[in-house]
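Inputs:
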Amino acid sequence: MKHLLPSRIRHKLNGWIVISGIGALAALLPSLYILTGLLRRPSENWAHIQEYMLFNYAWESLLLTGGTVAATVVAGTSLAWLTTAYDFPLRRFLSFAFVLPLAIPPYIAAYTYGSMLSYTGSVQTFMRNTLGWSVDQRYFNIMSMEGAIWIFSLFLFPYVYLITRTFLEKHSASFIENARLLGGHPVSNFFRIVLPLSQGAIAGGASLVAFEVLNDYGVSKHFGISTFTAAIFKTWFGMYDVDSAIRLSGLLMSFIIGLFIAERWMRRRRRYHLPVNRSTPLRRMRLGRVSGGIAATVGIIITLLSFFIPVAQLAVWAVWTYDDVWNDRFFRMIGNTLGVSAAAAALLMVLAVIAANASRTWRSGITLVSSKLLSMGYSIPGAVLSIGVLAVFISLDKRLAGVYEAMGFGANKLVLSMSLIMLVFAYIIRFLAVGFNAVDAGYDRIGERYSEASRMLGHGVTATFFKVELPLIKGAVLTGGILAFLEIVKELPLTLLLRPFNFDTLATKAYQYASDEQIHQAAIPSLIIILLGVIAVCIYQWMGRRGST
Amino acid sequence: MKQKYIVKSMLAAMAAVLILTGCASNSGNKNTDSAGASKGDQVVNVFTARHYDIDFAMFDEFEKKTGITVNEIKGTAEELVERMKREGESSEADLFITVDGGVLNYAKESGVLQPIESETINRNVPAELRDADNNWVALASRARVIVYAKDRVTPDQLSTYEALTDEQWKGKVLARSSTNLYNQSLVASLIELNGEEQTLEWAKGIVANFARDPEGGDRDQAKAIVAGVGDVAIMNTYYVGQMLHSKDAEEVKVAENIGIFFPNQETTGTHLNISGIGLAAHAKNKANALKLIEYMTGKDGQEMLTNGSFEFPVNTAAELPELLKGWGEFKKQNIDYAKLGVHNKKATELLNKAAWK
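Outputs:
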């Protein structure tokens, strides 16, 4: 693409580059700290880890991630296509309801399903006590590899669905309608037009899913699956070997960087720049009565499984435990959760926009690699990242000791690492990928012609950004912001370790109960987390609708 | 018009962030300021890996009694030790609370603890439940017992942890995953008592007798027994207590249908998992910290704790809840808990070798 850019633009160092350079450096420190773990001399445990854990555990992780990505891509893409290209009963409701599972943290879903399908759960109890059936436990065993893929797919497919749908709604109309006019069969249209066209969006969504699965510990631990993350924690918590745990995380990170480069390389020649930006939305074709009925039924089943059934179950448990669990402190927890999530999501989006803009204006190996490195925080377990963050902040605090003393905090004080700044910083590193992917996809959609035109007409990069690009990528920024907010509301390991004294959030409260197998007691905080997520999704839908009219 | 709006909203967002983080760090500072030696007699800062409501209730009670505010940071034990290590002398931690003797010893070995010097505490907690150098003392314990299906197994078929590897239990034994601390700690204790080789054989024997691959938590093992998946399971007593008091009638039924057997009564005794509290090496509110330990190990604190969590108290003066009384006296493993920390790594390796998932 370089030849398309006038050389004046290509070589100019500007404020964007400088700011994003500094930001990248700061955000990279914890990840770099973990990567350097690979350079240190391996501890005496390494041989054991290699022999008994490394390969088996990596293999299980690959299976889990591969299975989930495949399932979410199939479900997410076909549902996105179904709701944009066709009209059928309940379509409007379903296209909204498919986003809702994002509000449920997968580990809460795993506990809920695990408990619901267990011997004492509502399903088996009903069969046993009301219907008088005695059932074989094997058919109800969700705590397995297949069960984990099932849980992850049900609750993560909205990433692929949402990003692909946003893309298809706004930008596929001209291609699809031409194909339809030319008499293409709907199925071949889907495979020959829709899939190649939206591969960028699908890849963006799928990579978020893959990251989420790779860094998960809650689901795999509860289900007893030996994932790579489980190996990291066994090394750390079982063998007390932090350095080897960091080393394993470094390996995981470099594997993911490799994946990134491979994906980028494979897609390097396949870029679709769409001729029109604000094209008319795709005209939906009405499905017949039978196929419409089938579409609606499948949709309803998916929403029931991925949202309404688990929420109803949690609601029952919430009623059971209301007297024991509910107290006034929940209001503070809600305030804490909302405040810190909104603040971190807003800051994160500012950085994501700066990074995406820089990596686009200044295409080079370094910007590409560093923009990808910025996303690395999403790929490793939060607990390990938190060690990287702690390492950076505590050494910063020690360096600033003189300044603190001069400011009257007293000698030998930890200021930054005892404040919320550390937690907000950690959130940003962890979820920058979410914001960055969305903004990057937004830029991908508008192509370069507007920016090029604006710059050739004499605007600088900054003026071009505010006057031309930002209005065009507003929707993408909003998507990224909402997704990041949802993630932060649900986040656990970072919040647990990096928060200041007495700073409780809903997620830490839910964890407190769930970690001690008190899943019923965890229902109230979980439901509030879900409620906040649903509100965020509603706001997003409402703004999206207002923006498109 | 539009871009002005966007610029404004971006600026507003950034301002909001600054204000929010600013406020929060101020409120954080307020705590840490008063935690300093200059003013400090009203706070104590706790790094805790125990996340139970009963602990918070005890802190509240302590606050009411003494006027000393308890501040907490939570996390898993190993994370908190790592944090204290890195913070070094500047650490704000006064106390470290966690489950498992092995981790307590790891904290001690990591140099983040110091000796607790209090006659009251020494009277409250028997010597065998304290660290040799008094770096930590136990707060409570749970017994890791064998539970069995009342309708299919009689207690006289059971004897020891070791006997679970017998042929008669083939395809009938249930236990959770080896990532779990309780299992690591049990295996560490067996290494101390029976040696490494014998324990590896034991773990292999258990794996060979598994009714299914390990999954779920301790409660799930109990449910699996009643569901008929297996006949015997290794689990902690306090979960049985919690299940008996569950709001879910079905869980209560499960707990009623399983029997509790305290193994190794004729031999080495039943394995205990202890929760404990350690004094941070750089505690800045040492006097308050000692007061909190004294309260938590005192008769009142201990009774509150055991009634809330169904753990066994460490202070013999504390009255047991009815349920625990009903289980009767039993012989406990008599080992140095510090050894569990020493053997924990070996235990993890051994479980890997035995392919205990």
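Remarks. Residues 1-11 of chain A have pLDDT under 50 and may be disordered. Strands of chain A lie at 86-87, 285-286.
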